[in-house]
Amino acid sequence: MDREHVVIVGGTSGIGLATARYLDQKGYTVTIAGRSVPPENKFNSCHCDTRDEDSVKNLFHSLEDKNLTGLVYASGITGPKVHISKFDKKVWHTLVETNVTGALLCIKYGYELLKKTQGRIVIVNSLAARTYSKYSGFEYTMTKASLSGMVKQLAIQLAEDNIQINSVYPGMTKTPMLIQNVDKELLTQEEKVIPLQRLAEPEDVARVIHFLISKENAYMTGAGIDVNGGQFMNG
User: Fold this and answer.
1) Residue ranges per domain, the chain?
2) Is 148 in contact with 169 (CB distance < 8 Å)?
């Protein structure tokens, strides 16, 4: 029997890379895809620019002979926090293309492969979609909120093919994107107000993704799991 095969788009760093490592430990075949060069060569890797439809199409074409059982969309970028009076359409379109349109394209071109295996899709969202973002712009929060609606709507459509789609909503996580965009002192202050008294490690999120992408998840679709140390409780 073929090993379960998961493609992680945005898998070259942060939560995506941590998920690749975790799934590899659990016996999955993993393909990572992204715009940057992966820091290690233990995984199958493909260059993929989610802003380019042909690039996404080519990624999934290369996986046609694989037993693709899962798709994790972990690709995402942020933008500077500015006042609404400084709204810039170029910044907006850049975030939408990567955070939202890229996810739609991956699902579009991965659909037939996942239909064959009754596969799973996991979208890496953000605490910002549950509340707001302290350090990113409103454009970032809006794109993440858009993903929430996408998952709920597609859960109904994809259920016809027994494809399950869910989200994880991480709080502040020790990823390169966070470290590069938020001052270290601010992060230390943030840890003090988190009930569990620490930022999330990428592996904390990877463990939840593993459950959602696995066959152990037999009855969840259209759902979102919060991984934020108690900052936000959705109940």
Assistant:
1) 5-227
2) no
